[in-house]
Amino acid sequence: MGEGAKRRVRFGALMRSLVCGAGLALLLTSIQVPAQGLAWEQGLRKDAPDRYTVVRGDTLWDISGRFLRHPWQWPAVWQVNPQIRNPHLIYPGDVIYLYDCGGRACLGLERGQGVVRLSPEVRRIPVREAIEPIPLETVRHFLRDHRVADDPESLGELAYVVAGNDRRIISGAGDRLYARGGLERGPRYGIYRVGDSYTDAASGETLGLELFSIGQARVERSEGDIAVLGVLSASQEVRNDDIVLPLEERELADEFVPRAPDSEIDGSIMAVPGGVRFIGRLQVVALDRGRRDGLEPGHVLQVEQQGERVIDPRTGETLRLPGTDAGLILVFRPYEKMSYGLVMRATRTLEVGDRVGNPRRGVGVAQR
Question: Which structural domain range is residue 105 located in?
């Protein structure tokens, strides 16, 4: 009996024992690829475990990577029974197990029961926090400090700091400052400083202007177009001419459903915020493609590094060798002309200028 057949028998027996024994197994739908199920040999890791117990700190991407060769396909896995309100709610202590359903790979979910110890004291039950799809805290931290102005020419129309209190040139938390630009009372405003200009290397088109956060403030009162703001927080000193903008919407939890883009993407890594050139896993990168190119939050892009240039030994021609797949990037904040993405996998050190595009169909592209 071949190895694939042995695994099918073993996981089939495991499935039956779990379902018949306790009735706790919640079967997830089979992994999907276009037009057919994923065969055992196509998408499973050779060292995939029979069972895996979820621990604190795991992400859905991490767990899927223990079973699947291409972990970004987890949305096709976490489609559980209708009685579970949110299919993304997987908790520490839950058990994920692998089984065979009609020759296709399927995953099952067994809810962790935990142990309650009795004592004369009031019983305290800790709140269970569902694991995240990806390391969202990394993304949230970045978005607290960075945003992009789609049209740099519009900066002249944005509100800006004109002076600090008592003629100060710089201000900090607890200080008051003056800004011009028709600000309203009520909402919090972000204070930003102009950073790098993002430019398309091929066309020279300006794709956006980086703004990095200095702090937050709230309007206390205004006279004409000049507002008095109280500085609520500041990571560094606020200076004259810093930009004042309404805070961006930063809700992320429901946006990250990894999937291939619907349109053809051909772009590149344009920059790394902070000036780093060499890039590894869980670093944020700026891409030269955005919403106008069809990118949305959750789109997964494959990174390809250009092959070396060599000289043909017979003709003397300069040839470019085929490129090498080097990693995966998940888009988390697309703007009109560019995007920010998180490196989810890097099989080699990535660099500014590496190409990004649609995941190859040869590696299992999941469609919506």
Answer: 3-110
